[in-house]
Each structure stands twice: as structure tokens, then as C-alpha cells.
Amino acid sequence: MEPHHLQSSSRSATMAENGDNEKLAALEAKICHQIEYYFGDFNLPRDKFLKEQIKLDEGWVPLEIMIKFNRLNRLTTDFNVIIEALSKSKAELMEISEDKTKIRRSPSKPLPEVTDEYKNDLKNRSVYVKGFPTDATLDDIKDWLEDKGEILNIQMRRTLHKTFKGSIFAVFDSIESAKKFVKTPGQKYKDTDLLILFKEEYFAKKNEERKKHKIEAKLRAKQQQEKLKLAEHPEMRALEGKIGCLLKFCGNLDDQTSREDFHNLFARHGEIKWIDFVRGAKEGTILFKERAKEVLARARDAHHGNLQIRNKRVVWEVLRGDMERRALRKIIQDQQESLNKWKTRGRRFRGRGGRGGGRAGMAIRGRAQFQGRKPRFDHFEDRRAPFGRIKRAREERDDRMAPKQRKRAKRARYH
Predict the structure, then answer these.
(1) Residue 281 belongs to what domain range?
(2) Residue 84 is part of a domain; what is its CATH number?
(3) What is the pTM for the complete model shown?
(4) Where are the residues of the annotated region Disordered (predicted)?
């Protein structure tokens, strides 16, 4: 019987040997997977350099060339290790030359023809996965996908600056495997939930988003142009400050309804700038100093939601968009017309020589020109009174004169 310490040493050596064997097996599996990827259905048609090498020697590629491929180079540069790994592969995709210095894809497994049917099949086997950390590596993602099915290709999506976006496209070996993967609920990478879609579904979603963004961009551009117009045109600048402040109303209003009724209803809830309404009409608009929506809400709260005019039901609507702008333009025009009428009416009662009259300070026929407005009289008779007294005094004086004297005095008054 062996001493105890010899038994322990033997077990330790066996365990170490088993550990080395496991590491070697893992390395060989990675080597096989990497080389079979290079020569696989997905990569080989897209790899210009490898396709050129295949044409040189009936498909054979020297191992001296192969170990220059970065990912294989990081695994090993030992030809014996590569040959040993490929000889154990169950895929039987690769062949090894007799001198064990070259490898090629087996002629018995030609590349599929790139037909429409093949392209469609490839689309149906391709999936989109989002939610990986941006510092994840291809090996990290490969390890996560290892038990998810046979993966032919993984494309890490990157920005223009080569930064990983956190999403990938993966191609499965069959449609069934891809469907199973997509339909498996609750998949996570570490503690992060993943968004998983078929590649075509992802592109359809992105197209919809792009259309939406395009429409929104056009709308923003249009709004920007409108803002520029507002800034350029005085009338538009006036409109800009009143956007959102216009309330429209309509209903079966009676002929006695007046602007005062609307003023009484809203005056306590917001300052009213203008009411566009005439007696007998069934609709109109109210312009508030603040947002019409807020004023309407306060008024409704105060009246428990029952906003009526003279016991008549009224429909209230905060105007927006083109309808609002048209209504505001009309209000501004009405305000301007009202102001012009007021100015015109004021000028009618200005005295001669006031604003718009003759030159200030000049005398007319020896009398000082009247400046400013004429005196205002309460009654028409009073306005005539001073002139009536003067006329009567002249008539009384003329009566006392002889006929010839009266005639000469009359001529003197008119010359």
C-alpha cells in the first residue's frame, strides 16, 4: 500500500492534468469555432481577402496566412494546436492538407447560391438584440449567446466613431432557432432587460420612427418659418402675444344676448381684452389677456361646470392653429378700425388752427388764430347766443339810422 503522501500527490497530479485538459478542450473549441466562422456561409462571401486567397490554390489557405487573422492570432499561433483542434471538429466543414500546413473549406460543402429565396431565409434567421453595456466585448456577447442556439454571425453595431452602441444583429442557423430565441420572455444580460426583435421587425420600426421624425422636423421647420414671419410683420407680432388666449362660443342665443352677458360671466376669472359679438348672432369669440384654457377652467369650477348665457346652453372651445390665427387677425383689424373711427371722430371737433390746421402763430385778417379745441356748449341754443346778441344790437342801431346811413353802414360791414 502506498504511503498517504504519495496518494495525495497522485490525486493532485491527476486533477492538474484534468484541469489542463479542460482548458485545452475549451481552447480547441474556440479555434474550431473561429476558423469555421471565417470559412462559413455568412462570412466567406463577404470576406474579400479570404476569397482572393482561396482562388490561388484550389481553395487551400496556408496556416501562415491564417494566424495573421486577429482573433485566431489571439487564441494561438501554434500550427499543431490548430490542426489538432480542426481534426476533432464535428462540423466537418474544414479539410487539412497532407503536410498539415494548409486548410480549406470542404468542396463537398459549397457556398449556397445567393438567390432571393436565400436572402429571405437569411432575414428570417436574423435577430436584433439591444441592452448590452457599451463596454461589452464580442467574447462577452458570445458567452451569453452560447446556450441560445447555433449562431452563425454576430454583428456588434457601432457609431461612426467605432463606439459600441449596445445592440447587435445575430444570425441563427435556422428559422426555428431564431423564433425560439425571440419568443423566449424575460431575457436579460446580467441584470439588464433586453429588447429582442426580428431584424426585419426592427427595421420596420425604425422606418416608422424615421417617418415620424421627418414629419416632426417638417412641422418644426414650418413653425420656425411662421415665427420668422411673426417677427417680420407687425400684425404677426401682435398675434404672437395672443396665441392661446382666444375662446370661441356658440349656441342658441336669444336676441337680447349682449357682450355684457359674457363680460359678467368671465370678468371675475380673467381680464377680457375684446369680445367679438353682435346682438342676434349665435356665435362669437372672447380674447383674454391670459390663456383662455385657464380662464375657462376657473369659470367652470366657479359655476360647477354649468356655463350658460341667459339660461341658454353654450359650447365653449379654445381655438388653435389656423382657425385661431384667422380669428385673431379679424379682431386686430376690428380693433384698428375702431381706433381709426375714434381718431376721425375726434378730429371733427378740433378747432381750426389746431392740430392739422393753419401755421401756428399766424394771424388771419388781423385776428389771432384760434389754438386748440373750440369751447364746448351744453345746448345748441347757447352756442348761438353770443352771436344773436351782437346781431340784435346791430339791428337796433340800424333802426335808429337814416336810410342812407344804414346803407353805408351795411356796406362797411361787408368790405
Answers:
(1) 239-348
(2) 1.10.10.10
(3) 0.47
(4) 347-415
pLDDT tens digits along 250-259: 999 999 999 9
CA-CA distance, 334 to 276, in Å (whole number)?
Answer: 9
Residues 243 and 343 in one domain: yes
DSSP assignment, residue 164?
Answer: E
Q: Can you read off the three cell numbers belonging to residue 164? A: 459600441
User: 315 and 248 in one domain?
Assistant: yes
Domain CATH code at residue 125:
3.30.70.330
CB 145 within 8 A of CB 107: no
Ranges of residues in the chain whose predicted pLDDT is under 50: 4-6, 8, 11-13, 15, 352-387, 399-402, 414-415
Please give the full DSSP string across 18-38, using - where no structure is assigned.
HHHHHHHHHHHHHHHHHHHHH
End-of-domain residue from the set 305, 330, 348: 348
The pLDDT score that the predictor gives to residue 349 is 54
pLDDT in tens, 169-179: 999 989 999 99
Helix axes 403-413, 380-400, angle to 10 degrees: 140
Number of domains comprising the chain:
3
Class of residue 270 by CB neighbours under 10 A (exposed 0-12, middle 13-18, buried 19+) = buried
264 within some domain? yes
**Biggest distance spanned by C-alpha atoms of the chain:** 182
Q: How far apart are CA 52 and CA 39, in angstroms?
A: 13
What is d(CA 295, CA 288) in angstroms, rounded to the nearest whole number?
8
Q: 292-302 and 259-266 helices cross at what angle (nearest 10)?
A: 80
Q: What is the Rg, in whole angstroms, of the alpha carbon atoms belonging to the chain?
A: 49
Distance of CA 80 to the CA centre of its chain: 60
Q: Are residues 126 and 97 in the same domain?
A: no
**Distance, CA of 266 to CA of 246 (rounded, Å):** 13
Task: Give CA–CA dist 278/261, Å, rounded.
Answer: 12
